[in-house]
């Protein structure tokens, strides 16, 4: 403050004594993403209406000064039209009617002096990881909106992340790509992220992006106890379902076989009896008792081997024949008397 006051008083003395116009003060360059503006402060003491003239020349290759702007009424001048690959010397002076001040000179190299702005960042939480996408920054020039990544020979993005509200060390990752997946994070934890551009060739570090915080979800790793439970449940279900299916199939098979292919066989004499066509007398004569027995046999017959049925029928036939022979002998003895002996 004291220095500024002394400078203003000294300028006032010079102006009053010799009529010299003081030069602009604090000339400087403000350049962000190649949008470059020459700034300065007006002289401390002046008379009349002031105007400014800005000139520039290239250092490599060496050239003469050329006017950039004249008759400026403001204390700034946009010099973004200069090539970003050059090195320049800029100067500005004050003009009052026919008088002018000395030049205030500033050196400017856009590639080295411009400030790298923050990139645009998007964070997405998915399966216990954080997907970070970033783009830019882009050159802020009148006819040029290319990404700054295309101007520099080397370009990296630096990702800084940390747990929100913790005092743990900030972790940073450098990548050449426009996206990165942050893994090995704790599930259901909020992490904060910032991204900046880094240019190793120029030893430049860009501005940090806005802080973004996002919570992780489940990490997608199935706990061991769930795996074991599912495995045991599957084995138990297989052990139960296989016997049940087999038993059901067997019962269905037996039922189908009994319906369409019965195992019992009728005796031969019943087959012959049933195969004979009924006579007319049978419709009018009473049913013999033997036929009642035959019908009873048909109703109560069960699954019986063929050999046992045949043996039973043969034994019944032999008993009947033997009984008939005995009756025949008794009848013959009654009718024919024995011969008397002489």
UniProtKB/TrEMBL annotation:
UniProt superkingdom: Eukaryota
SUPFAM superfamilies cross-referenced by the UniProt entry: Fibronectin type III
Record-level GO BP terms: blood coagulation; interleukin-10-mediated signaling pathway; positive regulation of cellular respiration; positive regulation of receptor signaling pathway via JAK-STAT
One Pfam family named in its UniProt record: Tissue_fac
Residues spanning the signal sequence: 1-19
Compartment(s): Membrane
One cellular-component annotation, GO: plasma membrane
Cited InterPro entries: FN3_dom (IPR003961), FN3_sf (IPR036116), Ig-like_fold (IPR013783), Interferon/interleukin_rcp_dom (IPR015373), Tissue_factor (IPR001187), Type-II_Cytokine-TF_Rcpt (IPR050650)
Keyword Transmembrane recorded: yes
TM ranges: 224-253
Keyword entries, A-Z: Blood coagulation, Disulfide bond, Glycoprotein, Hemostasis, Lipoprotein, Membrane, Palmitate, Signal, Transmembrane, Transmembrane helix
Molecular functions (GO terms): coreceptor activity; interleukin-10 receptor activity
Annotated stretches, region: Disordered: 301-342
PROSITE patterns, per database record: FN3 (PS50853)
Main location: membrane
Fibronectin type-III domain sequence ranges: 23-114, 115-220
Family, similarity comment: Belongs to the tissue factor family.
Known role: Initiates blood coagulation by forming a complex with circulating factor VII or VIIa. The [TF:VIIa] complex activates factors IX or X by specific limited proteolysis. TF plays a role in normal hemostasis by initiating the cell-surface assembly and propagation of the coagulation protease cascade.
Protein name: Tissue factor
Source organism of this protein record: Coturnix japonica
Gene coding for it: IL10RB
């Amino acid at each position: 403050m004291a220095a500024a006051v002394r400078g203003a008083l000294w300028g006032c003395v010079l102006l009053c004594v010799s009529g010299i116009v003081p030069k602009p003060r604090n000339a400087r360059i403000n350049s962000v993403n190649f949008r470059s503006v020459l700034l300065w402060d007006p002289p401390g003491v002046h008379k009349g209406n002031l105007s400014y003239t800005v000139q520039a020349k290239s250092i490599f290759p060496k050239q003469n000064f050329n006017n950039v702007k004249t008759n400026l009424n403001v204390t700034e001048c946009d010099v973004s039209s200069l090539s970003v690959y050059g090195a320049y010397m800029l100067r500005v002076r004050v003009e009052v009617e026919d008088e002018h001040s000395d030049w205030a000179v500033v050196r400017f190299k856009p590639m080295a002096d411009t400030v790298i702005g923050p990139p645009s960042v998007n964070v997405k939480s998915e399966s216990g990881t954080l997907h970070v996408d970033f783009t830019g920054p882009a050159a802020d020039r009148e006819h040029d909106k290319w990404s700054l990544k295309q101007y520099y020979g080397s370009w990296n993005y630096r990702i800084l992340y940390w747990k929100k509200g913790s005092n743990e060390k900030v972790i940073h990752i450098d990548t050449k790509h426009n996206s990165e997946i942050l893994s090995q994070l704790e599930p259901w934890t909020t992490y904060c992220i910032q991204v900046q551009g880094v240019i190793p060739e120029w030893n430049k570090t860009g501005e940090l992006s806005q802080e973004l915080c996002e919570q992780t979800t489940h990490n997608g790793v199935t706990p061991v106890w769930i795996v074991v439970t599912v495995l045991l449940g599957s084995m138990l279900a297989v052990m139960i379902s296989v016997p049940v299916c087999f038993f059901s199939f067997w019962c269905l098979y037996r039922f189908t076989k009994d319906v369409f292919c019965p195992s019992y066989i009728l005796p031969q004499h019943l087959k012959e009896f049933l195969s004979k066509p009924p006579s007319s007398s049978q419709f009018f004569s009473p049913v013999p008792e033997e036929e009642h027995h035959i019908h009873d046999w048909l109703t109560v017959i069960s699954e019986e081997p063929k050999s046992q049925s045949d043996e039973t029928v043969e034994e019944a036939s032999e008993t009947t024949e033997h009984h008939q022979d005995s009756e025949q002998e008794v009848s013959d003895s009654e009718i024919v008397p024995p011969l008397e002996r002489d």
